[in-house]
Amino acid sequence: MSGHGDPVPMTSRRAGALRGIAEVPGDKSISHRALILGAMAVGETRITGLLEGQDVLDTARAMRAFGAGVEQHGPGEWSVFGVGVGGFAEPDQVIDCGNSGTGVRLIMGAMATSPIVATFTGDASLNGRPMARVTDPLALFGTQVMGRSGGRLPMTLTGAAEPVPVRYTVPVPSAQVKSAVLLAGLNAPGQTVVIEAEATRDHTERMLAGFGADIATEMTGEGRVITLTGQPELRPQAIDVPRDPSSAAFPVCAALLCEGSDVLVPGIGLNPTRAGLYETLRDMGADLTYENMREEGGEPVADLRARYSPDMTGIEVPPERAASMIDEYPILSVVAAFAEGRTMMRGVRELRVKESDRIAAMATGLRANGVTVEDGPDWWAVTGMGPGGVPGGGMTASHLDHRIAMSFLCLGMAAKKAVRVDDAGPIATSFPIFETLMAGLGARIERSNR
Ligand code: S3P
After folding, report:
1. What separation in Å is there between the alpha carbon of 175 and the centre of ligand 1?
2. pTM (2 decimals)?
3. Which residues pair with 419 in a beta bridge?
């Protein structure tokens, strides 16, 4: 569980150049899916490079509660002994997914077509987030749902005893919704079809194919049409989780902003459905190169090299790129604050329903540090103050959101005065080694409120 402990205030201040090699942890999206699909296969799935952040540990605990064997052998090395599609047992306790929207939504999908009952809850952030986007399509399979008003957790799902396959057009760009429907479709007879107008991260599709499911994706006038044949026997896999491009964003962006920096971030997954931030940074004039491009486990991978970039300019971020960088807008807004000119970010309504309302959280904190931010329901714009030009000196609130906390700590590394974060505890959900990794590069982050 996360967000239940005492607040962990942190302060970050300018320390000059960041230099060295930043080995960021495993990809959070792929780590959740490795555990869940491993639990739905028959036999032992071996995982290396698993992210051991709190979100993923909560999913591991949930898979045990549904009857799978989950064992850790060493750092990042895990085995999952799966019970097969439709083999989940009824948990005898409430499933607490902590801070993780991905965890709870994917697990709901995975159990929705088995004749068992499960109750889900989370921390204050997760219990405020919309779940109807997942439970509405799950109800089409025959799943019964009872929860709080507004489709919020805690919530109890009764899985469909005789599920029917579903054809569903995802109404918001969301890989979690798409994935929940596909995982539910695994135990429905016949073909489940999911249609998405905008391409979102495709790890579930790629991994389902790897586990031996019959799944095909076709581009049509409606968008991406994904067809899954239900009730396969999934074959256990050996999964080497690539490093997380969303975590890599923090050392990369901090290096672009701190004078004299030169940082190498090796082995980053650059799946096109995830790499939008890096294209955007290059469009802004960042000195960011992809070295040693290769393919690992069916995913494009590169070593990212980021150097201090005093000549970045604000741009209009293409809205069609939003899904491929949705988790990176908070740190992009920090980079934009140090560029010349205005950066406009449109088509980002989804940012309002993440671990926090990320537009509101970033706009408030940036303003507290002297940056001009304008915002509307589905857009926001940051007026850059040039390299080294951000005053800083402000207190910011993380709102139980790891990416907000890390973004403001990066702001403090390049601002004129130190930047304080009220609670950096949530960073442990996705990037537990953030503090030591950044300190190793030369950053100055202190556990204090001054
Ligand atoms: C994720 C999908 C995205 C993303 C989240 C991880 C996933 O959420 O923000 O961090 O692993 O499927 P949405 O599906 O809500 O866009």
Report:
1. 6
2. 0.97
3. 12
